[in-house]
């Protein structure tokens, strides 16, 4: 399997009030095509910062990041923005939907903005609707974003992250704002996308979410101190409880 994402010697330092905070310390990491990787660790350990640096949303202080063979740490802002738009999908806990647009218009916005997209508006809308059907929210396309539930909105975010058929989806606490049932539904959709070939990296505090991933990284104080290969989760015949139990035992060994 080819690596989609590779980081070498990745460091990130923030300077706040003249004080240096070395948040990521010399991280080496490789993510293969088709993996679904969870990033776990204590609060403030650098999980979100890692996600932002790997996806080019934030600049690294030292080291390099390759995405599909392109060294993103060498790209300028414009090149980075179009790479993110065309090849990456993003799902956040806060969702970041545009309040003045309908759910469908929010979903298709990355396609409308992409210079690579040669479709008519109607074709793009049709694709948006098809994604909504797949995620079971085809009845809320014309709603305002404040007229839908949190679970529906998060599924809309998944549609939006998929609209440009990205190579990889970066998710930061995608289920953090959801109740258990909605969280399970969103994870089912993400694992389905992953089984269809999309590589996913997901920051989470929830072992139930991580148990559905194929690999779990554990970060403490800006360094990856452990990783666990879980194998692909299959909804058919696999006992999720066993995976959760195994993962919880491992997390305790890491100091969780
Ligand atoms: N934009 C920023 N400017 C300055 N410091 C930042 C910035 N973003 C994060 N930090 C600091 O970097 C450290 C790591 O933050 P980060 O959000 O990556 O941790 P996390 O592991 O995702 O935490 P949590 O689980 O609480 O979301 C923290 O000390 C935080 O205060």
Produce a short descriptive summary.
GO terms for molecular function: ATP binding; ATP hydrolysis activity; transmembrane transporter activity. By secondary structure, the chain is of the alpha/beta class. 36% of the residues lie in helices and 27% in strands.
Second CATH tier, the architecture: 3-Layer(aba) Sandwich
Order of helices and strands: EEEHEEHEHHHEHEHEEH
Strand arrangement across the biggest beta sheet? 6-7-8-3-9-10
Estimated radius of gyration = 18 Å
| Poorly predicted spans | none
Question: Which percent range describes the beta-strand content?
Answer: 25-35%
The level of helicity is: 25-40%
Count of domains: 1
Bound ions, cofactors and other small molecules, one mention each = adenosine-5'-triphosphate
Mean pLDDT: 93
Number of strands: 10
First CA to last CA: what distance?
31 Å
Give the biggest beta sheet. Answer: 6 strands, mixed
What is the 3D form?
globular
Total helical segments? 8
């Amino acid at each position: 399997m080819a690596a989609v994402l590779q980081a070498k010697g990745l460091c990130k330092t923030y300077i706040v009030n003249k004080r240096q905070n070395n948040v990521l310390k010399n991280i080496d990491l490789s993510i293969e095509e088709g993996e679904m990787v969870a990033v776990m660790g204590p609060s403030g350990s650098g999980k979100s910062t890692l996600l932002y640096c790997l996806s080019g949303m934030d600049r690294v202080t030292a080291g390099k990041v390759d995405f599909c063979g392109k060294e993103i740490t060498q790209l300028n802002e414009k090149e980075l923005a179009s790479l993110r738009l065309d090849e990456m999908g993003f799902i956040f806990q806060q969702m970041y939907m545009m309040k003045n647009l309908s759910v469908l218009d929010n979903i298709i916005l990355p396609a409308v903005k992409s210079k690579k997209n040669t479709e008519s508006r109607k074709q793009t809308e049709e694709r948006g609707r098809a994604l909504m059907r797949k995620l079971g929210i085809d009845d809320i396309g014309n709603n305002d974003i404040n007229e839908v539930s949190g679970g529906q909105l998060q599924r809309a975010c998944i549609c939006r992250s998929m609209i440009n058929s990205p190579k990889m989806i970066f998710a930061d606490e995608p289920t953090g704002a959801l109740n258990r049932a909605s969280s399970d539904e969103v994870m089912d959709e993400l694992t389905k996308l992953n089984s269809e070939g999309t590589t996913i990296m997901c920051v989470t505090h929830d072992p139930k979410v991580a148990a559905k991933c194929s690999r779990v990284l554990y970060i403490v104080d800006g360094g990856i101190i452990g990783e666990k290969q879980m194998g692909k989760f299959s909804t058919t015949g696999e006992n999720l409880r066993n995976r959760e139990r195994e993962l919880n035992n491992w997390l305790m060994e890491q100091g969780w």
